[in-house]
Amino acid sequence: MFDPQPVLAQLQCRPAGQTLWVGFSGGMDSIVLSHFLCQHAADLPGPLHLIHVNHQLQDAATQWAIHCQSFAASYDLPFTLLTIEVSDSAEKGLEAAARDARYQAISQHIGDGAQLITAHHCQDQAETLMLQLLRGAGVRGLSGMGNLGKWQKIAILRPFLSVDRHQLHAYAQQHHLDWVTDPSNANLRFQRNYLRKQVFPMLSARWRSVHQTLSRSAAHLAEAQQILDEVAQVDAKVINIDWQQSRLPITPLLQLPVPRQKNLLRWMAYQLGVSMPSQTQLDYLLNTMCLAQQDAMPLLALSGVTVRRFSDALYFVDDKMPMPQNWQVTLHRPESVVLPDGRKLEWQSRQGAGIRANVFDNGLVLKCRQGGERIRLAGHAHHQRLKICLQQWQVPPWQRSEMPLVFADTELIAVADYAVSEVVCATSTESGWWPTVLPATAQDFN
Asked: 20 to 30 A from 95, CA-CA: which of 32, 240, 390, 408?
């Protein structure tokens, strides 16, 4: 058995009233977690909701889902079943592909900012550390799993991380719990299973507390990573990273010692939710991209983003679908607009700047750049080619076709974040509306 108070303490500090989603596979670990949380529901900050994902990888998968639903019903707990398809990725492997597909499905269902509780325990932590060691991971990877983590925009809570699996098994037996057994857990083709079935029994025979010892090492490394993150935060402020554009200035970056350059790049990638760059990729970023000629525009593809160079900066650019060329929205007031790529157009009230309020009366059209546009900038007597303006404003080339433009009939009257036409600009005694674009950013759960 295990002490319930440390487990509950990790959950009681979470926001009151928010649903606590419980990852529920139906295996022993998640059965114990669900039963334990149900027994202590009155001590939790929010209601429980079990969520099960059917990967359709085993013949018995449907029966497992039925078992999970029956368990939830027996304890009068809300239950959600998600069914997904998993493609065996040659790059990731089936195990990792299934995990990513599972979290993706859960994240989409429970929504941004939601909380997911998982049943990861001490042995899982030790296995994770060992796998990361064998992959040559850095300090962050060797830190293993934290009690509080995140996946994209959801919080991941792991209250059992310090609990031994044998204690979970004792709990399950004491409460006469039934669980499902996944036959794939015996398949030694999967790396984690090989460690669990072949490697750790040998290690445990010599070092009986190997799981606890490795988990303790992971905790020490997590503390070291916290210090590295604090160093990176100081460097980021000095260098003046532009988070709205995910822009990292090169010249001040290269003035740092090389280990701090790499640490800052890793930290920035982590903050942006990007897969950690390998040593080879870091070397390419620092030795090729950062040292390229000013007019060169090299790039590096990472998972989910492409790192590009423009002028004296590196940009982490989301790999998203381009804005549809025929997209447009009609506005009759300065209202927020969610763009097709997830960004949001907002309007700021500014004295002596922006579009006069009465200009909206006849309707304005928001659309993408087509090419050939001209605009009369504030303080100018004549129209100028937008292409020339974008070059003068140092707008990166890949952003130019994605910029929301505001039209009154056929007249270009505003370029979001950069300019409002003299034709409609508020005077010094008037308030105007200035268009600005906000990125789709991940929420911080720490």
From this structure: 32
87 assigned ligand-binding residue = no
- What pLDDT is attached to residue 87? 83
Helix (H) or strand (E) holding 21: strand 20-23
CA-CA distance, 397 to 375, in Å (whole number)? 19
The dihedral through the CA atoms of 390, 395, 401, 406 has a sign that is: negative
* pLDDT tens digits along 177-211: 999 999 988 999 999 999 999 999 999 999 999 99
Q: Which CATH superfamily is domain 4-217 in?
A: HUPs (3.40.50.620)
Tokens, residue 37: 């949380």
Residue 27, annotated as binding a ligand: yes
Phi, psi (rounded to 5 degrees) for 434: -105, 125
Residue pair 211/128 in contact by the 8 Å Cβ criterion: no
The contacts of residue 351 (CB under 8 Å, 6+ apart) are 426, 428, 430, 431, 432
Classified by CATH at the fold level, domain 240-318 comes out as 3.30.465
Percent of the chain past pLDDT 90, that is, above it, reads: 82
Tokens of 139: 């300090």
107 annotated among ligand-binding-site residues: no
Q: Which two tokens stand for residue 394?
A: 């140092």
Residues of the chain with CATH 3.40.50.620: 4-217
The reported pTM is 0.81
What's the mean pLDDT in 299-318? 92
CA 438 – CA 143 distance, rounded (Å): 33
The reply to whether 349 sits in an annotated binding site is no
* 435 DSSP 8-state letter: E
Any known ligand binding at 30?
Answer: yes
CATH code 3.30.465.60 region(s) in the chain: 240-318
- Does 312 show up as a binding residue in the annotation? no
**Per-residue pLDDT tens over the stretch 266-290:** 999 999 888 889 999 999 999 999 9
Other C-beta atoms lying within 10 Å of the C-beta of residue 70? 12
Q: How many CB atoms lie within 10 A of CB 372?
A: 8
Residue 263 tokens read as 């640490």
Contact of 355 with 318, CB cutoff 8 Å: no
Q: Could you give the CA distance from residue 32 to residue 2 in angstroms, rounded to a whole number?
A: 11
Q: Specify whether the CB–CB gap between 168 and 181 falls below 8 A.
A: no
Cβ-count burial 333-354 (b if 16+ within 10 Å, e if not): ebeebebeeebebbbeeeeebb
